[in-house]
From TrEMBL:
The modification 4-aspartylphosphate is found at D55. The lineage of its organism: Bacteria, Bacillati, Bacillota, Bacilli, Bacillales. It is found in: Cytoplasm. It holds the Pfam family GGDEF_2. Residues 3-120 form the Response regulatory domain. This is Response regulator. It comes from the Bacteria. Residues 438-536 form the HTH araC/xylS-type domain. It comes from Paenibacillus chondroitinus. InterPro entries: CdaR_GGDEF, CheY-like_superfamily, Homeodomain-like_sf, HptR, HTH_AraC, HTH_AraC-typ_CS, Sig_transdc_resp-reg_receiver, Tscrpt_reg_AraC-type_HTH.
């Protein structure tokens, strides 16, 4: 409820206002009274009401002086004056102190009710506004980490576009980043980040990012001043403020090693850290960040889990390697001839020169790898071997190529694909697929009751699991698992026709360990549950 104090030198007026008006109806509680302004001020200072209803003329301190004192101490307190009709000068003074209203004596209840209702509405609006402001301040406090991260991102990307406002923004965000200090940046990249993320749920991904930030920030605090934030998935940037001493670079590299080793120890993740160049002002952060990014990207050549400083990298001036059409034709020729040794040598001629160019080698290697995939795709199309499964496999290859971070991994993917294409062409040429399919059929017919896995079958026919599955689907139109299930269901139907075989025994006899799963699978293929099928057969 809102609180009210009544100040009037006439006891009958005070009694009438307190006793004959329904203050509770408007959510108001009369908490105090006084017979003069000076006493009233003491009561007001003690009780701190929301509303003061005061007479204008009083002997010691009149209502105008009292209102001035109230406004000086409690500017949000609402004041309503009560006085006679001949107090015109007082009325002008009341307006100057922004009184809510002026009620003439004798007080009319309807007039008082209208004034009170307006005062209460103003108080409620002010209360809502204060609640809104408090809520917004709380939300602003909660979002402060996000605002800091957004600001730090803008520093490394855009520098300081409006230098005149930078100090205000830094103070507001609680960041200590003097404009003329010495800075370095580091870029911490998770090695094979796509694979690291793929094995985690969204909750675990957020927890990992939070843990990485905490570990890096704690280690930075041990060595120097600075801030770290997540710039993008798998990449964390540190803005470090350092002194002018010669030993600072040595300390920086020691800190980077500490970060790398701690992340590996506590979170079991490998990272590569790029160290940018030293800069002497905050506005030059984009330059240092770009150099740190460039250093970290050299992991394709130097390997993962390294600390790479841009100052220590040698810049090559050799000409950029070009993949020409003649080289492509030679590679396709050895793929068609199924000469593994020659294929390996041809790929050496492609990837070794690419690896020697540190500046553009990796981006060129991606482009060359994609060209080789396209060349083999054209070859398979010419041989009428480019089915839906192979097309899907090629799309997956494209995605894998763009996810690789090392030259060796990139070459391995391309070489494995070319070898598989070569094997597929050789199989087709020799008519071997038909023989392989027959052997797979025979093997499944013999061992369907076992816990038969794709890898077990592949070993028996001397093929890789991937190539065997691809070959079987191309030749039969169904997958190996589909054929295995079909064989097991047919055997189950035969066994169920004999009432001596119990249902769970049939389940185990055809290679399934879970009767519930077997029952669902049987109904999916036959349209009836095993028990219903047996009832139909008897």
């Amino acid at each position: 409820m809102f609180r009210l104090v009544i100040v009037d030198d006439e006891p009958t007026v005070r009694h009438g206002l307190m006793s004959y008006f329904e203050w509770e109806k408007y959510g108001i509680e009369v908490v105090g009274e006084a017979d003069d302004g000076d006493v009233g001020l003491e009561v007001i200072e003690s009780l701190k009401p929301d509303i003061v209803l005061t007479d204008v003329r009083m002997p010691q301190m009149d209502g105008i002086r009292l209102s001035h004192a109230i406004k000086a101490r409690f500017p949000l307190m609402k004041i309503v004056f009560v006085s006679g009709h001949d107090d015109a000068d007082y009325l002008k003074s009341a307006l100057k102190v922004n009184a809510v209203d002026y009620i003439f004596k004798p007080v009319d209840r309807l007039e008082l009710a209208a004034v009170v209702e307006r005062v209460v509405n103003e108080l409620k609006e002010a209360e809502q506004e204060r609640t809104y402001i408090v809520d917004m301040q709380a939300k602003l406090t909660q979002s402060m980490p996000l605002l800091r991260e957004k600001f730090l991102m803008s520093l490394i990307r855009d520098g300081i576009p409006h230098s005149g406002r930078i100090k205000d923004r830094l103070d507001f965000l609680g960041l200590v980043l003097p404009s003329d200090a010495v800075y370095w940046t580091i870029v911490v990249k998770i090695d094979d980040s796509d694979q690291v993320v793929a094995t985690r749920s969204e909750r675990d991904q957020q927890l990992l990012a939070y843990s990485i930030l905490n570990i890096i920030q704690e280690i930075i605090g041990k060595y120097m001043q600075g801030y770290v934030f997540e710039n993008r998935n798998g990449e964390y940037v540190g803005i470090l403020r350092m002194g002018e001493e010669d030993t600072q670079e040595e300390m920086l590299l020691g800190m980077a090693e500490d970060i790398r080793d701690s992340l590996l120890k506590w979170l079991k993740i490998s990272v590569t850290i790029g160290v940018g160049e030293r800069i002497s002002e905050l506005a030059a952060l984009p330059q240092s960040y770009n150099r740190a990014q460039e250093a970290a990207d050299h992991r394709w050549y130097l390997g993962k889990s390294r600390i790479i400083s841009i100052d220590h990298l040698e810049h090559d001036n050799e000409s950029v390697y070009r993949f020409d059409a003649a080289q492509g034709e030679r590679i396709i020729s050895v793929v068609k001839s199924s000469d593994k040794t020659a294929l390996h040598a041809e790929l050496d001629d492609v990837f070794i020169p690419l690896a020697q160019n540190r500046r553009l080698g990796f981006s060129n290697a991606r482009n060359v790898s994609l060209q080789l995939i396209l060349l083999t795709s054209r070859l398979l199309q010419e041989l009428n071997m480019l089915g839906p499964d192979m097309e899907k496999k090629e799309r997956d290859l494209w995605e894998r190529i763009f996810k690789q971070e090392r030259m060796a991994d990139l070459r391995q993917i391309v070489e494995e694909h070319l070898l598989q294409v070569s094997e597929s062409i050789e199989e087709k040429r020799k008519g071997k697929p038909k023989n392989v399919i027959e052997r797979i059929h025979a093997l499944i017919e013999q061992r369907y009751a076992e816990n038969l896995q794709i890898g077990d079958i592949a070993k028996e026919v001397y093929l890789s699991s991937t190539y065997m599955c691809l070959l079987f689907k191309q030749e039969t139109g169904e997958t190996i698992n589909e054929f295995l299930t079909k064989v097991r269901i047919e055997k189950a139907k035969e066994l169920l026709s004999d009432p001596r075989n119990k249902f769970y025994e049939v389940c185990f006899m055809v290679g399934y360990s879970d009767p519930s799963y077997f029952s669902k699978l049987f109904k999916k293929y036959v349209g009836l549950t095993p028990s219903a099928y047996r009832d139909q057969m008897i």
